[in-house]
Amino acid sequence: MQRMNKIPDIPNDQLEKYSSAISLSDMEIFVFPELLYSLVLANIMSPRIWEWRNHDWFRKLDTMRPYKKIQRLKQFIIDHYEFNLDLDTWGLTTKEAEMARFAPFMDEKTLGQSNALFGYEGDKHYFSLDIRKHFGLDKYTSNAIPYWKTETLEAMDAFKHKENYRAGAGECVSLSTLYAAALFIICDIPLEDIFLLATPLHSQNFVNVNDGVLTNNRRLVTKNMWFNGSDLTARAQRALRHEEVTIVANNTGFIHTVYPEATIAPESFERFREKLDAFTTTNITYEILANFLRDRSEHQKCFQIRYMRHGREQYLPIERAFAYEHGSPYKVSDKATCDKLLDQIDEYDFYTDPIPDRIQLNKLSDYLKNNPISHFDDASMKVLAEKIDCTGDMDRKMGVLEGLVDFIHLDPELPDTESKTFNGPGPIEIKSGMEREEVIQYLESLRGSHTIADLAFYASRDLAVTDWQPFLKAGLERNPVIIEETKKLSDDELFQALESLPSESIYDGTRIAQPDEVWNFQRGDGLERAIALTNIWLARHPEATIELTATGHNVTLKLGEKELNFKSSKGLENHISF
pLDDT digit string (tens) for 486-535? Predict the structure, then answer.
């Protein structure tokens, strides 16, 4: 490929990383962890999120406390974006092709242990939930694997143009990086308080506000919610409970479970570790004990609850009480409403005498009211063990205790700092109150010394300020959807199909869509359609000679003897020979 461009070329040993900033697949982010925060910065530079500040939904936001602001943002994201699990959106590649790409950076065994597309199955309990089928990975049992790509904000918004989508959409990394950017721009949360966490099957954020907030796809999880024992919370806990955290990143850098060098500031990572530990740890109280029994239903058979009806004591197997919670505003765990819940239950479900071999939750709660118990306090745990009396059945008693300790304290498997050397270029110091143009100018000033800042301009697809080679490498090597979807068209039908698409880009200014984005969203600027056609043509005619010339508002594409002309609003200039 020959080209004319004023932007300095990317060195060959960096080309794979820089082209990965364009395609942004799950595999690429694992191999090149700088990309995770680069996408956050690309979204921060996007005019789309800054426009949100003028939306009626965010009026008077400056009068709200930080958590209230975050709640408003959450509802906005729920209203405007769907969680997209369609792995076919971005087409297929092969394990062999991806391993050939990544071989200089990571061996197959390491990649296989940590990436779902290369054989990773995580914790056995996690996969006993049939999570591989849930994600649609069970379809890919041969060497064919999907491009599990992360979307930019613009690509997320463009899903509204795709059939069967009501609004925007994105997968978990797309949503986590969108949240990170929006938390800063809309909610004024400092970047140093927003931590991105990636596991082999999930991505989410920890936000240092109040006792902590986790973003989980479109939703939020507070510390109180973390311990409420609901099915929704159990799903939100899966990744941290059953997977290794492979990447933690914030504005100071990243730490990766595989690479020996970390760029995140050590004090920033330690603060994150302490805050996350406090978020996932609580004392044993009546409410927590009841929430534990809701979540770990196998232990409900050890408990009963006492209720006074017409001045007489009655006793109910606690699993019956939890069964009545469904469809009721009252909860076993809420002492203020528990009696109202029990009053709704038919009297014939109750026993007139204490049920043998079951602990009375009421008696235990009376003790816990004045004696909250911490899992790390051996003396108080010993007292609790004595009060949990399952007819002297030690196995049942220990099962309850072990399950309870597991419920109230999670120690996430974070990257090990002992084996790391910390050496980063310094924090990206974008501050609340800066306007978009100030942010862009600041990031431009860092490009020569800060790889993450430089990669952000590639992730934002701005060909006016980046070398075109990474964009074209990604466009011609990792966009199989448009090739597959048009393979039944003749050459003339292909020209007509692309020429008939609406001449509008999903990106503003000099930012450019990849070929599969053009096809998936059925629209594209003239330059985008010319690049898309180049991708298809090289797949059909590998030996073809192709020349693409962009002269501001005109684009000429020569396919051998065939010449096509497109109008472009991008104003870009370049000449490329393939």
Answer: 999 999 999 999 999 999 999 999 999 999 999 999 999 999 999 999 99
What gap in Å lies between CA 54 and CA 56, rounded to an integer?
6
Identify which of 28, 21, 30 has the alpha carbon closest to the alpha carbon of residue 243: 30
Cα first-last separation, the chain: 5
Tell me: do 387 and 428 sit in the same domain. Answer: no
Nearest-angstrom CA–CA distance, 281 and 458: 40
Angle, CA 575 vertex, CA 570 and CA 578 arms, to 5°: 115
Same domain, 146 and 267: yes
331: phi then psi, degrees, rounded to nearest 5: -130, 145
Q: Is 526 helix (H, G, I), strand (E, B) or coil?
A: helix
Same domain, 197 and 333: no
- d(CA 304, CA 359) in angstroms, rounded, equals 6
243 and 315, same domain (yes or no): no
Chain segment 240-294, per-residue pLDDT in tens = 998 899 999 999 999 999 999 999 999 999 999 999 999 999 988 889 999 999 9
Largest CA distance in the chain: 97
> How many structural domains does the chain have?
3
Domain match, 249 and 299 both: no
Fill in the amino acid letter for 375. H
Q: Give residue 207's domain range.
A: 2-281+412-459
Contact 390, 359 (CB under 8 A): yes
